[in-house]
Design brief:
Layout (H helix, E strand, L loop, with lengths): L5 H25 L4 H22 L10 H25 L4 H21 L10 H25 L5 H9 L10 H14 L30 H9 L12 H4 L6 H4 L2 H12 L9 E2 L6 E2 L4 H11 L13 H4 L38 H10 L15 H11 L21 H9 L9
Antiparallel strand pairs: 1-2
The structure holds heme C (2 copies).
One heme C binds next to helix 13, helix 14 and helix 15.
Amino acid sequence: MEEKPFLKKLGFIVAVASGAAVGAWLLTGVLGLAHAARLGSVAIVAVAMTYAILLALPKRELKEKSFLQNIKIKVPVFLVIATIIWFASGAAGFPIWWQIEFVAFAFVGLTYFVILDLKAMQPEQNHISWITRLIATYALASLIFINITGQLPQFDPAVEIAKLDKPPIKLSGLAGPEVIAAGRSVFEENKCFNCHKVFWEGNSDRGPNLGTKQIGLYDEEYIKKQIVDPRAKQSPGFEDPKSTKAMPTYYGEDLDDDSMHALVSYLKTMRDPEHAPIEGKLGEQWSWFDDKDIIAEGEKIFNGEGEGAAEGLNCSVCHGKDGTPMMTGALDFRDANKMDTEKMPDRLDGVPLKDWPDSLWYKRVTRGVDGTPMAAWGTVFPHLVLWKTESYARTFHSPLESRTEKSPLPPVPTKEDIERWQKDGLFMDPLL
Ligand code: HEC
Ligand code: HEC
């Protein structure tokens, strides 16, 4: 039978398909089907039509392609796809090793399609020859695989054993910065970074960011207790069952005394003189200036009812229990428009009390106002309790109940910020 020309077939297929599409549309309408279902039925006809057209395409004579012809289109397509994959996975935040792996997968795809189109080999003459080919292919594949994986970062048993055999930290003879550096390596080696960020470092937020939480404000006993027995007190915002059970309880056994001491010394450096501590889980964090529990504690301390480290501190003797200053000249916290003192050379000009940055509160309360009874309380009392009194003092002109929104969260301090704090002497004492 003579083959019909393609155009004739095409006309026939399109005519039948159009009829079928109209029929499907009308029929589904009569049946009262949903609009999407009606469109779907027409789409099915369209797919069937495409398939029929493909089948009707004139047969091309099959010719063996040369190797160059084989890769002529495939390689540029691969390059385009690989570039897209590379940038898309980079934009999606995948680490570089993943990006390389994704592109490698695309390369495997290229190889696969190139091999599919390779010229067929000569048929094997005998058993020996097909076995040799099989073994040769296997050997070649293994060789390539071993060589490529050899370039990847290796697990080196010697390095791993050296880590395990590392002599325990000995602190005798070590001074401040060295102890802190040793503590930092204890933090790294015990995988604390798997759950805790430290300011900008680390990439997991399962536990609190120990930097912005300012764990360094707490005393050594408290920090140690939280590491040895993390269930003793839950971090605010981490009371859900999953977080409660997250922190491992074996560190007390794993860490010897010197390592623990170094670790705590490192954590003690985590403080921020420019922002109040931040509590809570990423996404639902809040500042101490908006924390009702902290404000309640602050009220007690402000009124001289603080216990332990806060014993003896009393702001109300001068500033008044209800905010009416008891001492002439003491700042009246009820007046939201009071300005910074004129007695300090670093005066913050033109900013009313209601808009004072956290850093000004911190600086004035820890360092006092020269030549006045407002003493440098930060040299006498832990800064932890002073931040609490500041959170409370703010409520005299801005009661917590009347606030309509939370204070905006400050950006996470960077390495440069921390260097600047140290250079500008913003800490009273690195470990207070
Ligand atoms: C598997 C996750 C995980 C690891 C690993 C981990 N932690 Fe925690 N950690 C948490 C979680 C979650 C919390 C908050 C809940 C709680 O208080 O137990 C927490 C709480 C803490 C607290 C208390 C903070 C507060 O609010 O008082 C300290 C301190 C702490 N971790 C230090 C460490 C140190 C140091 C290491 C490494 C030796 C470490 N963590 C390892 C998950 C972890
Ligand atoms: C012995 C009395 C006294 C005590 C106690 C005291 N203050 Fe003051 N405070 C003053 C006086 C006086 C001033 C005004 C200084 C001046 O002349 O600028 C002042 C000013 C301040 C200022 C404003 C500084 C400025 O830039 O204007 C703040 C904030 C402050 N006090 C907070 C506190 C807090 C918080 C406490 C408790 C931790 C406290 N004070 C305890 C006497 C006291």
